[in-house]
Amino acid sequence: MEMLCKDPAEEIKQLQRCNNDLVSLLALPALCTGGDSSQIARTLVDVLQRMLSLELVYVVLKDPLAEMPEEFARVTQSALQPREIGAELQRLLGDDPQKWPSRASRRFVDKDLSIVPARLGLHGEIGMVVVGTERSDFPSQTEELILRMATNQAAIALRETRLLNEQKRVAEELDQRVAQRTKELASANQELQLQVGLLQLIPVAAWTILPNGTTDFVNNIWLEYTGQELDYVLSTPAAWMTVVHPDDRDVASTTFWEGIRTGQGFAMETRFRRIQDGAYRWHLNRAVALRDPNGKVVKFVGTSTDIDDQKKAQDTLRNTQAELANMTRATTMGQLTASIAHEVNQPLSGIITNAGTCLRMLDAHPPNIEGARETANRTIRDGNRASEVVMRLRALFSKRQAVTEPVDLNEAAMEVVALLLSQLQKCDVMLRSDFDEDLPLIVGDRVQLQQVIMNLLQNACDAMSNVHDRSRQLLIQTHRDDGGNVRLMVQDNGTGLDPEAVNRVFDPFYTTKNGGMGIGLSVSRSIIENHQGRIWVKPNDGPGATFSFSIPLSAGRTIRETLVNLTPRSAATNVREIAQNLDE
Ligand code: ADP
Predict the structure, then answer these.
(1) Ligand 1 pocket check for 429: Cβ under 6 Å
(2) pTM for the complete prediction?
(3) Fold of the domain built from segment(s) 401-583
(4) For a surface tag, which of 118, 138, 415, 513 has the fewest beta carbons within 10 Å of its beta carbon?
């Protein structure tokens, strides 16, 4: 995903493609729910190859249930099978994937490739991904980020699929056992006694219900779990209802009676109270009908399985996924800003050159009116182009409506820091963080605030990139100030700012960087002001600068939806006026 290419149209197309790919990456876990893991692996291979233009993509999945690991691969101009590719990689990188280097240059088939392995799951317990290209500078930071995001998303999808399959398998197995017993028992009443014995043995709560809905048997596991006495259960209709969570009772009762009345049995999730600690835990309750040879229901046989842990694991997975989605939004925004900066700079330098030419033509004796008009027109065209780019940028920012939610600024900042960690290392920056542990929550838009923090950290890194005579030190700090505000401060020991710059850094388009756009701090200011806050900078006593923002604690405010208030049209408007004057 090299974004900075020559042709703006091509670049926009590339950005769109890249955005689409990111969206499909994020949708991966949702798409694959109920699907199988090979489908996820194939999608991962596709997405990686498309986004990173790879010569080699190889995915191996370790499935504890399968005998052989599953392998997937794609190599350009080669008919090698995934298994052969896997063997070749082991020959090149070593037998134990856990010990593979994080990056290697190897001769693979007949090409020299930069090879990068990545783990699926924290310790590669789900599998491994290996990518390779002929580019010697692979992977760039962006590519590394994409690789990490793609493998993370795939790992989430794979884990969720496995969990669901396992749950399904257990449920089916139980169903099967019960169905088999049903068949065998339908013939003889004597057998029923045996079945009761069996229900005592199976390792989940089990019970039987008469066609009129009264309980006629429960096993010991049920009694131990709920603390109920057998006599009580058998003599009291719907005794089981007293251990159901009050919020689940209505649904449980409706489903139960519907299943009994129709003779179809039921499957439902309810929370039961565990006597041991009083905790309500989720259970999957299934009942199937036992019929006599004429098809008449003799009784219902059922089980209640504690699925609370699985349910919690799924919730955690879903939350992780949401977090990742948030981060991706924040990073994508940063990358887009960088490439749009590049795009807008071209027309801007065009405007300056043309305006200069125009003035010279007017100053000539006699003035070259025709030439001046033409250059003025060219200037208008460039101005409009720049303005379009900025409009697109604004649209991008405002597409996402500002949301107000309680935000833990420490946590938001830590996520951004985690995201930038490898970049900081690469730039030899020593980061110190000093987060106030008692920091109160503020109300605001978490992703927007993360954009501000990311921008401050990136600027600080830029400001230190020319420092060679001292170690590059970066401090990020949060605290609650005397005025009831929450504050975040980013301090660097970089080149610093002169007094004139201090007054201008928050102006749109003020930049001192080659290829900078000067929009980051102005957007940051809009965001902070929309949070009723303030952002400012102070030169340090020693080298460097300190940027800070503060957000008031008063809750329940509404944040204005409009976010960016730039005036991109002024340049074009000015030039248009010059042209009109010439025409007169
Ligand atoms: P950009 O990074 O594209 O230039 P910003 O609006 O983020 O746009 O920053 C504007 C300008 O402010 C930068 O070009 C730089 O001159 C100055 N600046 C920002 N942060 C720092 C810093 N930490 N130290 C010194 N100068 C800074």
Answers:
(1) no
(2) 0.39
(3) Heat Shock Protein 90 (3.30.565)
(4) 513
